[in-house]
Amino acid sequence: MTSDVSQPKADPTPAGTDLFDPLGVDWTPVSPRLASARLTVTAIVLGPLLIGTVALAALTGVAWLWSLPAVIVLLGVWIGLLVPRQVRALAYAERADDLLVRRGILFQQLVVVPYGRMQYVDVTAGPLARKFGIASVQLHTASPATTASIEGLPPQEAARLRDRLASRGEARLAGL
């Protein structure tokens, strides 16, 4: 007589593999200076709001208006705790045929860009990014949905990555 008890199915993924952390991939983290730059932007935005709401509450004398500066301070503290973790979660990896870009804590994202699909590579650095010594590399493909960007790279690394990705893209494109 056979048993109707079904056997547990084997997991198709090997032990130790993760959807957002493939085996054998050496991730390169971005510069921690990106966190400082993002926190500076937060202070630039929230600072005047805090001053304005404190002035409004103090000048009007309405007690419930003091909740506005409190909310802004709590938002600033939350952002101050979140941003460094977000920056630590940013990383990229160069493989033989593609570039991987990983980001996110709660909502994780892994973008795989094949070198043969790249059309061009941008390096950008605004005034604040230059002040903190960081730059961004953005990869453009034929599909707008597969563009990827890597923020917070030291300028020398951004230039190296731009040149390397462009040459790999040209080599893959020439092989088509």
From TrEMBL:
<feature type="transmembrane region" description="Helical">
    <location>
        <begin position="64"/>
        <end position="83"/>
    </location>
</feature>
<feature type="transmembrane region" description="Helical">
    <location>
        <begin position="39"/>
        <end position="58"/>
    </location>
</feature>
<dbReference type="InterPro" id="IPR005182">
    <property type="entry name" value="YdbS-like_PH"/>
</dbReference>
<keyword id="KW-0472">Membrane</keyword>
<protein>
    <submittedName>
        <fullName>Membrane protein</fullName>
    </submittedName>
</protein>
<keyword id="KW-0812">Transmembrane</keyword>
<feature type="domain" description="YdbS-like PH">
    <location>
        <begin position="88"/>
        <end position="165"/>
    </location>
</feature>
<dbReference type="Pfam" id="PF03703">
    <property type="entry name" value="bPH_2"/>
</dbReference>
<keyword id="KW-1133">Transmembrane helix</keyword>
